[in-house]
Fold each of these.
Amino acid sequence: MSDQLDTIRSLAKKTDSKILMVVLDGVGGLPLTVNGDSELAAAKTPNLDALAAQSQLGQVELVGAGITPGSGPGHLSLFGYDPLKYVVGRGALSAVGIGVKLAAGDVAVRGNFATLGEGRVVHDRRAGRPSDAKNAEIVARLRAAIPEIEGTPVEIYTESEHRFVVVFRAQGGTPLGAGLSDVDPQATGVQPLVAQAHDEASGRTAALVNAFVARAEAALAGEPQVNGVLFRGYSDVPHFPSFDDAYGLRAACIASYPMYKGLASLVGMDVLEVQGTEDALDGKVQALGQHWADYDFFYFHVKKTDSAGEDGDFAAKVKKIELFDALLPQLLALKPDVLAIVGDHSTPSKLATHSWHPVPLLIHSEYGRKDTAARYTEEEAQKGSLGLRRGTDVMPLLMANALKLNKYGA
């Protein structure tokens, strides 16, 4: 464990208090014009405003100044795991999240279905966000076309919308390396990249990935929209200290997307079953209420704030924020002893991608000091009493506000 996790583990104590961490994925934003409103500021959020007036606010940098975090590092940081020490590729998170077991030497990779135009130029990195049913149809076609590559078994799984997972299984006791570059250029108007190995152990994996890309494009040549694949986030089997061991908390995850369930599972949270759609969020609230007596800590994930930001749709992101605001009274009715609302990264609609900007943090508890912030927005969070914090500071603050930490030293 890191020094901070070791310290928290030595101070943690069991109490009856409950902590609810709400992660509004990609919630941080930017104004479309200078001195304009961000998505949070433009949204009508009477419930968040009322809560902010009774809470402590601040800002969080998930990895470091100027560093744009992926969803995995962002969440690890919020859970108290230094993302520069505990490194895991998105492929493993997605694989574990959909129940795929990884063995030593296997490599998992997260894929995007994409739309390629003439000259293999990327027109849409997400292929128009196809339905889950269309995703499953394409995955079935790829399974038939690519069951193996030169003797290496290949497994292909549906995740959701444009996302899928590929697992390359190690054979004959020779492990596959996960040190290779992305195929996804994370831009349009350019060709997919060629995977390059960063070390000798990953040379075989790079060859497998490049062969998969070529065979997938051949298999999907007749598709007008879903006709290419982009890879990023290679990972072998990760290992983390358990959440319970670090904090002494019975922890539960309430999420819909496999990657977030996978991450929670890797740190030892119980992943609760959620009914209904991500847009409605009703199933998540229902799961939270049903299991409220069973756990000390709940991680409640809201995805669509990020999706709207990635689509560059300012108005849609505002709407997703307002939908969460309407839901907030149901969470408050459970009377959590500590409620945190935070993002795992910023996804400004203006950039249509993740960004380096700090995310606003709200902590509500009986033991907060008076704060001048009046709304849950980026601008108001800059005024807050919590100041600018590292992501790994969030869990100790929540533990302290829940009175779950003993005094340090004599």
Note: The mean pLDDT is 93.
Amino acid sequence: MSFILRGGDVCQPTIPTPIPNPHWVAFSEEAAQLLGLSINNSGLPSDPQWLDVLAGNSLKANGIEFIDPISTAYSGHQFGVWAGQLGDGRAILLGDIQGLELQLKGAGKTHYSRMGDGRAVLRSSIREFLCSEAMHALGVPTSRALSIVGSKQAVRRETIETAAVCARIAPSFIRVGHFEHYASLQDTARLKALADLLIDRFYPECLESKNPYLQLFISIASKNATLVAQWQSVGFCHGVLNTDNISVLGLTIDYGPFGFLDQFEIDHVCNHSDHSGRYAYHRQPQVMHWNMACLASAMLPLLELTYSAEESQELLRSALESFPKIYAQEWQHLFRRKLGLTQELPEDIALIERLLQAMNQSKVDFTNFFRSLAQVNQRSDLIDITQRDSFIDREQIDQWFSEYLARLQTENIADSDRHQAMNSINPKFILRNYLAQTAIEKAQQDNFTEITTLLKVLSHPYDEQTEYERYANAPPLDLQKMAISCSS
């Protein structure tokens, strides 16, 4: 198994707790292909035993037996405050298939559940399943979702809901919190073993560096700087960017109170428990930077194996300073592409920022506006640009479009080619909260067809899919301000 650091305070054998009368809610054939699972004509595993395995009711299917499921301890900072030991409170790592870890979320209590019941509810499982697969289709690094298995077992949250188990897969679920855990225990031996494992499995290029551990930190920070720029470019808000929710592989993990922007609000908060707005859309880059500072602190003992304490701190501090530069470079690259710009001109940044300010003032739909920009031609007359109607300050947006048209005319690219390029980065379909809520409400009535339809649509977010046009619509007025809780 990828996570080989075993020990009483680090990792515990954990057998899933069965749920009564499990049934299929959703299944991703594309994710199943990664594991080499055989699929029948119904789009489900050919071996029916997989239902019990993915429900947490069995450990054997299709000749595969999971002999040592585990849950792991990790620590972390939550909302900027050190929370101490946390851990897999309801996530159980079954084992590896095809080099990928298969994990069940909601399969019962673990050694690290504290006061929790170890269960997940149908509502949150649907959201995680759909968003994991939607993010992958958008091209954003993410854990994947294999399935949802449901049960009528009652689970108490704000109200009584029903249980569900979401199976998710990733090359590894190791997170910043694992490093913080070993550092907090002053267990340099395990900290080193964890870093060596990551280098061996995922960052072998670090061995070519003068100091592999410093290069490991640089690589992890770089991946997460790029990741958060990708989030910003598709309007994704994670909701709970605690250090224990941050992957050391630069993956989006732990889908809780996430949300995609509908109306563009630079300070949008998708988690109604985030009263201070710490994890608002515009703060995600700086919070990720802060999280990387926590990782640097946790990795300090590794550098001190070679350098003095002062030298180690300076090396990590210097490496950390690269984060905002990498983020800015990727953010600028992505937003240039969203505007159909291939050349890099200094004035582009001001052009992008003025557009976002105008969109914020007028609460313009983020996804639909950028998608529609491909319809604008280099020689368009200002009066014919219908997107102007979405803005309150007509003089301001007219000035912007005048500059944008002039900028397009400096590009050596045909309109048709630019349209195609823009549509390949500006999605038409995202998992809007109201769409997920519709699927949830139907599923709570044992109708899972909307999940299947949404999965199909979101698996091709950049295609026109005219037969599913309504899934690209902005939310109705009464559903524009949906905030999601951490409860799952």
Note: The chain has a mean pLDDT of 95.
